[in-house]
Amino acid sequence: MTGNQTFTIIKPDAVKSEYIGAILADIQKAGFAISALKYVRMTVAQAEAFYGVHKERPFFPDLVTFMTSGPIVVAILKHDNAVEEYRKLIGATNPANAAEGTIRKKYAHNVQENAVHGSDSDENAAIEGNFFFSQCERF
Ligand code: CMP
């Protein structure tokens, strides 16, 4: 049984490049419903907590610096089999390996500045959505 929601971030690189509108349009055209949406800038402490699973990775300090370098858009998206379908829509983590037509192929710069985040499991989708949104902020 797979869940019907996932969580996404439009990252600082894509926000700076003025891709918010294009990426949200691609998401909606692909049939995802926006359940929750906001524009925020994470503090260092928030980014360290959000990416806590990666804290032993060599890229962790750079990742936190990048993710706090500017505002981001966070959203909860609804779709059947949402986690897997959204990962197909965004493409591989490294845009060099992302399939033609995917969001990362179209808008990402490199493996770190990769335009969007997508949850990797139903469990993480719930944890990540709850990190940013209260019950009255989702529809
Ligand atoms: P995201 O899907 O948000 O999850 C973790 C993030 O770490 C990932 O997207 C990239 O932004 C970043 N990341 C993953 N692998 C690497 C890597 N090899 N080098 C630098 N950044 C990475």
Ordered list of secondary-structure elements with their pairings:
Elements lengths: L4 E6 L1 H5 L3 H10 L3 E8 L3 H7 L9 H8 L4 E7 L3 H9 L12 H5 L8 E3 L3 H11 L7
Antiparallel strand pairs: 1-3, 1-4, 2-3
Bound molecules: adenosine-3',5'-cyclic-monophosphate (CMP).
Summary, kept brief:
The protein has 139 residues and is of the alpha+beta class. It is built from seven helices and four strands, in the order βααβααβααβα.
**If you compute it from the alpha carbons, what radius of gyration comes out, rounded to the nearest whole angstrom?**
14 Å
Please name the fourth-level CATH homologous superfamily.
Answer: Nucleoside diphosphate kinase-like domain
How many individual β-strands? Answer: 4
For the terminal residues, how far apart are their CA atoms? 22 Å
Strand content of the residues, in percent?
15-25%
- What is the structural class? alpha+beta
- Which parts are unreliable, with pLDDT below 50 for 5 consecutive residues or more? none
Q: Please name the CATH architecture.
A: 2-Layer Sandwich
- The CATH topology is Alpha-Beta Plaits
Overall 3D form: globular
Average pLDDT across residues? 97
CATH class: Alpha Beta
Largest sheet: 4 strands, antiparallel
The succession of helices and strands, N to C, reads EHHEHHEHHEH
Distinct ligand kinds: adenosine-3',5'-cyclic-monophosphate
Number of structurally distinct domains: 1
